[in-house]
Amino acid sequence: MKRTPLIAANWKMNAPPPGWDAEDSPYRNRDGVDIVVFPTFLDVHTCVEHFLVTGGQYGRAEEKGAMTGDVSMQLLANHGCTYVLCGHSERRIHHAEHDGMIAAQVQAAIQTGLHPILCIGETADEREMGQATDVIQKQLSAILQSSINLSSLTIAYEPVWAIGNGQTAQPQDIQEMHTAIRALLSEQGHENVRIIYGGSVKPENASAILSLPDVDGALVGASSLDPSAFRKILDSLPI
């Protein structure tokens, strides 16, 4: 089965970029590729109103409760989100999110009707110690051992050491890790789950990354804040 590529714009804690709502905005869906924007919670409603496919940068598994500053998966869905990021490395680092918590988020997202993008990846120290595959296996284990229906899940491999610093993994390293992730998924009968890459994706390296056989798209950070750069990344998708 051919997997539809997905290109996601993670705007993080930034306002939507100039021209995001234009009729010819690169953030709008086009034939043959799924395009999703992840704005701040303050901008979710506006993006939905302008007919962009929109996701939450985070959602809590609990439906409601005394959790100041958080939003639930259900609230995201109620406000028009169709996607949600789960386990982004910045959430793991700055908010101490652990694998069990992230698995609960994924399950809650799917039960709510959202499409979760599960972010996994190793640190520089873990890679240097030869533990990269072990790390992603551990991060995936809670998901694969659960009864979650993974048909509406995307995996984002984002090596922690290549996020937000301009340092990008080499194509052979990316393909190697995507092959390992694909093998882990295939063991559980999930061959058709999309696996996208995130980690300083930009116009200069997009073509080499997106042409790799096991890369089904990209989670774009800094370059997604530049409409011209984001459009060039989209144009780098193999026809």
Word description of this protein:
The structure is a single chain. Helix 4 packs across helix 6 (132-144) and helix 6 (132-144) packs parallel to helix 7. This protein is 35% helix and 15% strand. Strand 6, helix 7 (171-187) and strand 7 (194-198) form a beta-alpha-beta unit. The model has no long low-confidence stretch (mean pLDDT 92). It starts with 5 loop residues before the first strand and ends with a helix. The chain has nine helices and eight strands. It is globular. It is of the alpha/beta class.
Low-pLDDT residue intervals, each spanning 5 or more residues: none
Question: Structural class given helices, strands, pairing?
Answer: alpha/beta
CA distance, first residue to last residue = 17 Å
Beta strand count:
8
Mean pLDDT, as a whole number?
92
Q: How do the strands line up in the largest sheet?
A: 2-1-8-7-6-5-4-3
The amount of helix comes to 25-40%
Estimated share of beta-strand residues: 5-15%
| Radius of gyration, in angstroms, nearest whole number | 17 Å
Give the quaternary arrangement of the chains. single chain
In N-to-C order, the SSE pattern is EEHEHEHHEHHEHEHEH
Name the overall outline: globular
Largest sheet at a glance?
Answer: 8 strands, parallel
Note the total helix count. 9
